[in-house]
Amino acid sequence: MKKWTSYKSELADENFDAIIIGSGIGGLSTAALLALNGKRVLVLEKHFKIGGWTHTFRRDDFEWDVGIHYIGEVHNKWSAVRKLFDLISDSKLQWSRMDDNYDRIIFPDKNYNFVAPRKQFVEDMIGYFPKEEKAIQTYMNYLDEAVKSARPYFANKALPNILANITYPFMTGKFFKYADRTTFDVINGLSDNPKLLGVLSGQWGDHGLPPKQSNFFMHASVARHYLDGGNYPIGSSRRIAETVTDVIEANGGHLAVNAGVNKIVIHKEKAIGVELENGDVLEAPVIISSAGVVNTFDKFLRDERADNSHLPDLDSIEQTESYVCLHLGLNKSAEELKLGKTNLWIYPGYDHDRNVQEFINNPEKDFPVVYVSFPSAKDDAWNENHDGYATIEAITLANWDWYAKWQDLPWKKRGEDYEKEKEIISQRILEIVFKHIPQAKDSLAYAELSTPLTVNSLANYQKGEMYGISHTSKRFHQKWLRPRTKINNLFLTGQDITTVGVTSALFSGLLTASVVLRKNLSYMLK
Fold first, then answer.
1. How many Cβ atoms sit within 10 Å of the Cβ of residue 442?
2. Looking at CB atoms within 10 Å, which of 209, 249, 397, 420 has the fewest?
């Protein structure tokens, strides 16, 4: 496991071409691409580990990822996703293939398997819903059209402002045909079968909004991404940061942990550096924030808020809901327990919107979803360092307000009431996990629950957001969600300028680096 270097004040005396705030995959991708193009970069990370949602944590013989559960398309060496990962990791990042049955959508009356490849998925859906063959075939076409329509929309974000404004209507028109409609509207327009809607939208947790709230493009992007199967990094998700940082360092870059940024320094409407929480000021001709747009404009630029011409209206976006995750450690291997690699999506009923609303109104109601993942089973290299042990993660929705009364207390020292609340939730989740994976019960050796406060402490999201800003239709109409800001020399990267997920954040790095360098870096993927 790679060791990370803490910030030292001597770095303030060094010269860098760009400073990047945050080491999530968007920040790392941006940094690696700039480094590969001759720029000396400095990546500053508030946490004590590099990687953002790609890092892992350990307890004794157990290790869990914190945000990466599966990635599509990377098994195909010719896919753009794989090419970009190979480029920024020097092809050192390798992938384990999941079972063809990558997701199982579970309702009280029946289970539905999502099986790769695409042809098998279609055959299975028609088998489950034989009267809906036409609707299913049309739905598959809509997935393709929605994803294809997004390419010029995202390309527009990399254009110079004047050209982007002129071409915007022509590059976004087809995209908004899908992004302006909800997932519910599109699927319900093809069939009035509520079970078909419930099954096809059974991965809504991958982007954070149920069918009546999510826009269809976001749904299509996720659903299509996995049609040929899922994959997991060999050596766990921390290998993403470990391999990419090797490339950054080999090309003259530097990364520092325990380097929390207090604010971005602005002089004469130009970003000239960052001030750290310890008071140090580091300067560079380019400043890039991968810390999310709310942190960037509400926290790092708080001194600039009086001049609204520089700053976007944050009321035009919404933050996503948060979550709790129960991390389970088992004293038998995944092979012994026959855990498999298939993700489980466990629901109390087919109406996802009603399930969510009832739970938000009353947290004692059924969880609207419990997502169960098996990282030790997915990782082909797991037994090299954890032989005889296995891990499970079980995730469900939460609300920041339920935990806000403990927010001012320090991590791991939030008191007895907080621990009691965590224990109640843990037991509720365990009951569901053991119902569907009964063989895990007698092997349970460790359990630890993370809450929205954990996310706030370790990932620096203000309200413990699951996915940054919400993927509503309104979000995609915000022109300012692009790499270039109205403040000279200040740029954005990360999932907020593209969409949710490691793959999208990865490509945000390509967009931002292209804008900073003023050349289209897509040629590097040829």
1. 11
2. 420
